[in-house]
Amino acid sequence: MKMSRNIVVLGIQWGDEGKGKVVDFLSKKAKYVVRCQGGNNAGHTLIYNDKRIVLHLIPSGILHSNIIPIIGNGVVLSPVELLKEIFLLEKEGINIRNRLILSPLCQLVLEYHVEMDIAREEFLGNKSIGTTGRGIGPAYEDKVARRGLRIIDLFDMDGLCLKLKDILNIYNFQLKFFYKRKSVSYDLILNNLINISEIIKDMVLDVTNLLRKVSKNNLFTIFEGAQGVLLDIDYGTYPYVTSSNTTIGGIITGTGISIRDIKYVLGVMKAYTTRVGFGPFPTELFDETGEYLCHAGNEYGSTTGRKRRVGWLDLVAVKKTIYSNSLSGICITKLDVLDKLKEIKICIDYRCTSNLSSYMLQSGMLPDKLEPVYEIIPGWQKSTCGTKCLNDLPLLALNYIRRLEDILGISIDFISTGPNREEIIILNERF
Ligand code: GDP
Ligand code: IMO
Ligand code: MG
């Protein structure tokens, strides 16, 4: 029997680890790239030939003409935002429409989800989550409440109209009477759906069935995670999380792929830590070093443009993700951002009075004084920017990589040394 060549790429911090860049790099040998969960809360940046493209819904292999992009059933899909992204890419000369495949089971993100997301965040004030305001939470809520509209509903417009009326009644009641906001227009949503549905309907295919055949035929497929595992609805820093499973489970339920057909799982980890939105962040920096990392790493959100919070690499948090996500190897990104630092800190433990310390990050009960224990590593103070060959890496940078491997107990298979596609060192390619 032929072995499958499916690999999974997961962010293993709080998102924005550089998944887009890594998937773009790996895609040159791939046939399919699949988005599995999340929605247009994601912002994946690709830089190639001096062009910067930020993708929110379309898989990050799209710049390669050999790639067939797929959006699996676990993704919550805004038809309006999808169309915007298609137009944007077409303006860049990238052909999408006869390549993109959509699962009929994707839940739709509609205008009332966005309104509700924004209304709630405003209402919560300083207790808000800091969402991207893209309607992601409400859309997943409708899915679980078994009242969501899906792509498949576009094939039965009469039925869709009835369901839409019912859902909109619930939303508009809350928006008007509780949040004191304007209600959302039924006609606006319906007109948008009618205009877009013919384009979308042409892209619909049974994704799980396709992936079964693809796996049998040994075609290299990349399953692209969105967000990061610390934002997972179950395993993340609840309630400061997103509304999907960003861990390996989300890849499986979000596409229907068999776990037996996953050959390799790559965890993408930034050489330091960032987070957008609120929630615990034990290694966060509020000093000049934090400002420096933010500036050198250009840490501004790819989706909302918000300044990202910045801190040292938290190996306690990362280590917890390795086992339950079946990580096979790690790609460390943004090594070059550390180039000028005299010393680099890595968090190897938390000093904490409670015996629940290993659950602290995942509980809402994180004490204010969860103090990180740091190991200090000497900086290399030489440029690694754009390095593609391991031998060209300064010895101290290599020592840093080896120390991370020791602590984490997993091999670092790739080192990303710049935002451009080819700025990467391959240490081990095991797929
Ligand atoms: P994603 O959401 O995980 O795809 O990450 P984002 O695209 O939101 O944020 C990562 C940012 O870092 C983007 O601006 C990338 O262009 C950039 N980037 C990715 N890898 C590297 C790297 O190795 N070095 C540097 N300097 N920038 C990188
Ligand atoms: P990529 O794929 C970083 C964060 C938001 C907020 C929380 C909930 O680019 O790594 P949501 O809008 O999902 O309800 O917001 O999750 N968040 C992300 N942070 N990168 C992302 O995606 C994110 N997607 C959501 O900032 O804290
Ligand atoms: Mg991002």
UniProtKB/TrEMBL annotation:
Keywords: Cytoplasm, GTP-binding, Ligase, Magnesium, Metal-binding, Nucleotide-binding, Purine biosynthesis. Binds 1 Mg(2+) ion per subunit. Substrate binds at residues 302-308. Gene3D superfamilies: Adenylosuccinate Synthetase, subunit A, domain 1, Adenylosuccinate Synthetase, subunit A, domain 2, Adenylosuccinate Synthetase, subunit A, domain 3. One of its GO terms (molecular function) is adenylosuccinate synthase activity. Its main location: cytoplasm. It is an enzyme of class 6 (ligase). The active site is at 16 (proton acceptor), 44 (proton donor), 143. GTP binds at residues 15-21, 43-45, 308, 334-336, 416-418. Its cofactor is Mg(2+). The keyword Transmembrane does not apply. It is found in: Cytoplasm. SUPFAM superfamilies: P-loop containing nucleoside triphosphate hydrolases. GO terms for biological process: 'de novo' AMP biosynthetic process; IMP metabolic process. IMP binds at residues 16-19, 41-44, 132, 146, 227, 242, 306. Pathway: Purine metabolism; AMP biosynthesis via de novo pathway; AMP from IMP: step 1/2. Mg(2+) binds at residues 16, 43. It comes from the Bacteria. It catalyses: IMP + L-aspartate + GTP = N(6)-(1,2-dicarboxyethyl)-AMP + GDP + phosphate + 2 H(+). Plays an important role in the de novo pathway of purine nucleotide biosynthesis. Catalyzes the first committed step in the biosynthesis of AMP from IMP. Belongs to the adenylosuccinate synthetase family. NCBIfam families: PRK01117.1, purA. This is Adenylosuccinate synthetase. It comes from Candidatus Purcelliella pentastirinorum.
